[in-house]
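Q: I have 441 residues here and want to know how they pack in 3D. Can you give me a structure?
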Amino acid sequence: MSRKERNEEKKHKKKHKVLKVILAILLIILVSIGGFVSYSTYVNGWGWQGLLATMMGHNQETVKELEELKVLLLGVSTDIDSKLTDTIMVASYNPKTQSAVLLSVPRDTFVGKSKTSANSYDKINALYQKGPEKTLEAVNEITGLDIKYYAVIDNQALIKTVDEIGGVEFDVPIKMKYDDPSQDLHINLQPGLQKIDGEKAEQLLRFRHNNNGTSYSSEYGDNDIGRMRTQREFISETIKQTLQLKNVMKLGNLAEIVYENVETNVKLSDVKDYLPYAVEFNIENLKTGAVPGAPTMINKLSFFEYNKSETKKLIEELFDADGDDSASTSNTSSSSTSESSTTTKIPTSEAAKVKIELLNGSGNSKLLTEATNLLKKKGYNVYKTGTTASSSKTSIVVNSDVKEDVLNNIKELLDTGTVTNSATSSQSKTDLTIILGKDYK
């Protein structure tokens, strides 16, 4: 056997090249359904949740005993000698509240014990070389979450899954052109809504910046922040389109893809009780975010240093349902003040037509909850929320033709905000993108 053939064989045997993000636990839940019910049962009008619950011996008390299910998703690059996690993401599903979370952890996060002796192995993406358990331990320390499960996903899992469901309709945010011959990586995608197949999905999710150094806009979140946001949004669309009726017959093939390309400590016995409730999950209840912090130089090396206090606040906001309720209550007086000061009146029916993306760049996670509740109370459609790079000023980015009185009403509600027109308005799924800055109180 030639050296080239040996290298090819070695490369072929290596699993877990790069995380091509799939919400693994929900996909495992989906494909497991195929073992319980048939397609004909569904089309004959039987309710998924009721039928599955009955077959599994559940009663009304069962869901009350189920804890929030959390899984650490890892993607490992083998393009170089040392395995590094390209993507680290926490996925959770809460059957009591029918909510789910995707939380990105920047791969350059500093996890070393000493800054004076820091080296490249003190980045969280290097921990996988000691096993997924080490990364799981570090993420639990950063987030304070008690995550028990992990899933390491081979790039082939994403490529084959996307191709199996016929591709994913996705709005590519910018033109992507990047080449790295050393990794045999060539990215060439045009902006706009399009059908993404498996090969394009790999390009989309690996993109950080173009050959000329340009990247996502600051409003979107440049470089790694932008890439993590694209990954989370692509996951949302993949799940949504996998859940379509036309793909029910493909569950068997999807199951085979998952079990061939995923290394995980999740067992069917761990998730089977969640099945009756997960099948009715609404993707609109998916919350997303990224661990807050900032790039920094430590011992002459580039790291990401997470903000412990802001991370704690974000975790409470995303994962603690009771905390969300209390936040809503505690912000009542603040919201009332803003509402009473508005002079521009917009009918609720008119406000409901305005689709808003609300991003938190204030550094205070509670303010995102406050602003979301405030806008929803006035009838606005807060389509999605998330975090973005730190911003000193609140901005309202116009992505479509929005009436001036609507913009004035929103500015009065928030009591701040500079209106700008989006450079990529034709590619946006929302009418407005509101970025909360440090001036939002």
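Q: Anything worth noting?
A: Residues 79 and 183 are 6 Å apart (CA to CA). The chain has a mean pLDDT of 76.
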